Amino acid sequence: MPRACTVCEHPERDAIDAALVSGEPVRALARRYGLSSSSVSRHAHNHLSAALAAMQSQEQAERRASLLDRIETLIGRAETMFATASEEGKASQALNVLKELRALLELLGKATGELDTRPQVTVNLLTTPEWYTVRDALLSALTPYPDARAIVSGRLLELEAGETT
Fold it and tell me: Is 32 exposed, middle or buried, given 0-12, 13-18 or 19+ CB atoms closer than 10 A?
C-alpha cells in the first residue's frame, strides 16, 4: 500500500499550501515544518489544490495589472454606478459619481499622455545665442554667392523684425 503524503497529513497543511502557492521556496518550507524537501516538492506537484493555485495565480496577475488597466476598471465601475444612480433617480449620488468619473478620466488622460498639464514654455528661437551662430554660419557659407546671400540676408532680417510673410 502506498505511503500517505506527509504534507497532506501535516497539522499545518493549510499554511504550507498557502506558502507554496505564494512562491515560498520548497527548502525553506521543508526546514520550517520539519519535512523533507522532496516530500514538499512532491506534495506541491501532486496534491496542491488546483483551485488554490489558480486563485493565487489570478491574484498575482491582478497585482501585475498595469496602471491603465486599473484606471479603466475603475472607470467601468464608476460608469455602472452612475447608470444605477440615474435610473433610481438619485441625482445627488449620480452627481457625486460624475465628479469621480471626471477625476478618473483626467487621471487616465495624464497616464496615457493625452492630457498634458505641464506648463508650456515658449521660446523665441530668434533671440537665442544659438540662432546667431546659425545665422552667421549660413551667411558665411553664402559669401561666394553674393546674390543668394543678399536674398537670404534680407529674408532673415524680415524674420527677425517679426514679418512672417
Answer: middle
Predicted pLDDT of residue 63: 65
In a domain, 2, yes or no: no
Q: How far apart are CA 22 and CA 18, in angstroms?
A: 6
Question: Is 59 among the domain residues?
Answer: yes
DSSP 10: S
What own/partner pairs with CB < 8 Å and gap ≥ 24 does 101-108 have?
A: 101/75, 104/71, 104/74, 104/75, 104/78, 105/75, 107/71, 108/68, 108/71, 108/72, 108/75
Q: Tell me which residue range forms the domain holding 91.
A: 66-112
What is the pTM assigned to this prediction? 0.37
pLDDT of residue 142: 94
